[in-house]
């Protein structure tokens, strides 16, 4: 279980470090809400949250299936 968690953390770290070179930006997906005011910016990563939830649910389902 710890090895699987370590592999997932390494993959997530690589994804974030190589994120600028990927064709899509994690955290800047279509569906994320950005409201820009005169002196402020409100950012709500709706699509990113949904995507991470689905991926993590799938991973946990696969690990728990055994």
Task: Write down the secondary-structure element order.
Answer: HEEH
Count, helices: 2
Helix/strand class: alpha+beta
What is the global morphology?
elongated
The number of strands is 2
Q: For the residues shown, what is the average pLDDT?
A: 83
Give unreliable regions as ranges.
Answer: none
Radius of gyration: 15 Å
* Strand composition percent: 5-15%
Helix percentage: 40-55%
Biggest beta-sheet profile: 2 strands, antiparallel
Total discrete domains: 1
Description:
With 66 residues, this protein is of the alpha+beta class. Helix content is 53%, strand content 12%. β1 (33-36) and β2 form a beta hairpin. It is built from two helices and two strands. The longest helix has 19 residues, at 46-64. It has one domain (2-64).
């Amino acid at each position: 279980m710890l090895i699987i968690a370590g592999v997932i953390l390494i993959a997530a770290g690589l994804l974030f470090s190589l994120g600028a070179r990927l064709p899509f930006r994690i955290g800047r997906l279509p569906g994320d809400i950005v409201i820009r005011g005169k002196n402020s910016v409100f950012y709500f990563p709706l699509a990113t949250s949904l995507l991470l939830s689905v991926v993590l649910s799938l991973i946990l389902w696969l690990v728990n299936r055994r």
